[in-house]
Structure prediction request, 875 residues.
Amino acid sequence: MGHQKKTGKGRLDKYYHLAKEQGYRARSAFKLIQLNKKYNFLGSSRVLIDLCAAPGGWLQVAQKYMPVKSLILGVDLVPIKPIPGVITFAEDILTDKCRSRLRQEMKTWKADVVLHDGAPNVGSNWAHDAYSQTELVLMSLKLATDFLNKGGTFVTKVFRSKDYNSMIWVFNQLFGKVEATKPPSSRNVSAEIFVVCQDYIAPKNIDPRFLDAKYVFEDLVLNKAQTSTDIFAPDSKKKKRHREGYEDGDLTLYKSIDAMEFIKSRDPAGTLGGANKMTFDTDEARDVAKLPETTEDILLACKDLRVLGKKDFRILMKWRAGLRERFQLEKTEEQPKIEAGDEDGGSDAEGQLDLLAKEELKKLRKERKRVNAKRQRQLVKLQLNMTTPTEIGLEQDGGHELFRAAKLAERESVRTINELRQGTVDSINVDTDLADDELVELGSRPVNPDDSDSDFEGPDDPARTRSGDVDGEDDEGQGRLRQLESEMDELYSEYVDHKRERDAQYDIKRKRAAEGEFRGFDDDEEQNGSGSDGFASEPDKGSGSSESDSEPELSEDEEIRSMMREAKQTKAAKRGVAARKGAVGGPAVVSTKLGGRAAMWFDQPLFKGVDGIDLDDITDDDSDSKAAVSKQSLQAARGRKGASKRKRPADEADGMEVESDDGFDVVAPEDHGDPNDVELMDEDRQADYDLATPEAMTMMRDLANRKTNKHALIDKHFNRYTFNDSRDLPDWFVDDEQQHNKPSLPVTKEAVRMLREKLKALDARPIKKVAEAKARKKMRAAKRVANVQKKAESVIANDDMTEAEKARSIDRMIKRATKAKPKEKVTVIVARNANRGVQGRPKGVKGRYKMVDPRMKKELRAKKARDKRTKRTKR
Ligand SMILES: C[S@@+](CC[C@H](N)C(=O)[O-])C[C@H]1O[C@@H](n2cnc3c(N)ncnc32)[C@H](O)[C@@H]1O
Prediction:
């Protein structure tokens, strides 16, 4: 293998690093991985031969993707470091020795796959390398025909060359399916492509010419002969363009040329057609880029020469012609001819001739500058709307002025020189005068009043340079222009041919470009395109199965989405609260004025919307009354329910608070004023102190609205029911008393309304069971999201997949995860007859099932009744 230094730009690309990370010996391993992904030939193969296998990247891949215990053989000129389960040996595949060694290793087996990634040592002479490469391919094909099983696969690397089509033709004769492809890991700048030949026909007799390089690559053999002479006299011949792809010493298909190369080239169409990009990197080219002639359009066209349209091509050719004119390239190229012609003339005239020619050129240059400057001025005027194109005659003249000037210069100098060649010093003088006259006419002829109706005024009018000859010159000019146009067309078709030769898909690509679907020539760009087809075009989650789900409840994918929405909202809300907190300076306005407990108290929803409460007036001194009231309200609520609790007499004796039968608290005197009463309540008990009855609500409102106070309230509730003793009374009596013999407390309409509203709000909340079911559903959805995320991460990290494959697989995962699963039906099995006493799943029952006992319900009911009875008797 040619040991290329891995320091060039782009050499250490992502596949290089990936190969290092994943332990492959060569980045080329990814080419085989990607080829196998596309054609899937490794998984089903048991015997594989890798020709030109060093350092062994492909062998590693084969070993990984083929079934265990497969026979894998690798051969290369250089020894290959051992790979477990792989047999390797060093041989030249072009020799018979290699063939017999392979036969020896294969015994009676036949190969399912023959791989060939051979590359000759890349030298400076391309044609020779191409020959070796094609020779290697043909030889590997030969070996493949010897060892391949019928239906087998042959994978080979080929370089695009003029013999490419012949090669494909040969493959097609031997295989059922032949496809050329360039895996993404193959560098765009490399001319290599891989041909995957599947379904080996295994003909009994193969025409020997199919595998004969002389027959298949006739031209190349000729080329080889030619190039061998070139080696000894590289500059003796004109450098030939290699239509087969590479130029000598240039081993990539991507080529950029310097603008000056194009300007100076004698074959501009060929130069353009042979390059991908035109750069302005040399000093000279940089100057050219700054010239006004080098417009934005030209710079843009230079960026990608492969997609030049006819218009762009013409612009570039005109630009080149103008610049050649500016740099006097035509002149300098003609100079040697002139000099050669002058050799015959007298040596006295030589110096004067030179002088004259120089002066001539100087003048012409000056004139050209002037014409250009005028054109520039006119353009500026046009841009400032000071004039119209017709006024300045841009259409008639502007585009061709350059050529007119060039033509003029050409004609003048040629004429002068011809005359000089023939004539004497006198005639030189005469002609010089003439020339000067003409130049004076060109540059400084005064305005002719007779010409005032003309569009072009003043000395700058090029159409007036020869007053008597305008028509004739126009005709001549038109003819010249037509000629230039046709020359340009010819050049353009030459350029297109050139492109076509370099790129087999040229026509298709151009068609795509014309249809607006063009995605570029590079694999990279195609990948980007496919990337956008894959990842960018997100799966239409909205049109998933959930839409067709007729259940009113949220389907699971909706659940997932709603979770995501909720998460967002929660975040937003948190941000909002934080912002508000920051703005207001605290969580609640009330708490800024009241103590903590008071704030908590009045923070209850009950006080919201209650008119007339001036929270500022309520101080912590009132908290004792609040505590008492809260207890009373609780008791009132309990009283309504008839669920009185009696405390042990011992508790009363201890002076602790006692709940009376009539449902009112009797608060021990020392506790009355204790503001810590509320604080003493634990969390659970606090939850009990709710305003659950209209009586409690009324009482509360009265207190809050200062219609009563704690003393009045306590006094009022010392009544005939206060000290009723129910200790020795039977249960039935106590229960009945509780129901009917109790004080009737005042209730206001407002309190009833408020309570009703509160209950309504409570009713609106889902019952616990439903809430739990929803929460479970959410939890399951969250689990699925997490699972998909995890899987997606592993897919993303999988380097064996292309971006598009990754996108597709993630897409599939999401669809699967969000698809609503049909509810599993539960079969109810009654445990009677054959199912009676069956342990585990009854026969013939599939899916979820529930065993029910026909007697179970009755028995359970009976057991409950029994339990109740025994409880009563125990008491
Ligand atoms: C691009 S490398 C192959 C890389 C290999 N597929 C891998 O993944 O490691 C090309 C190999 O072809 C080998 N080669 C070139 N000419 C050969 C020949 N005549 N016989 C055997 N091997 C040859 C070179 O030695 C070189 O190792």
User: Anything to note?
Assistant: Residues 271 and 406 are 23 Å apart (CA to CA). The two ends are 101 Å apart (CA to CA).
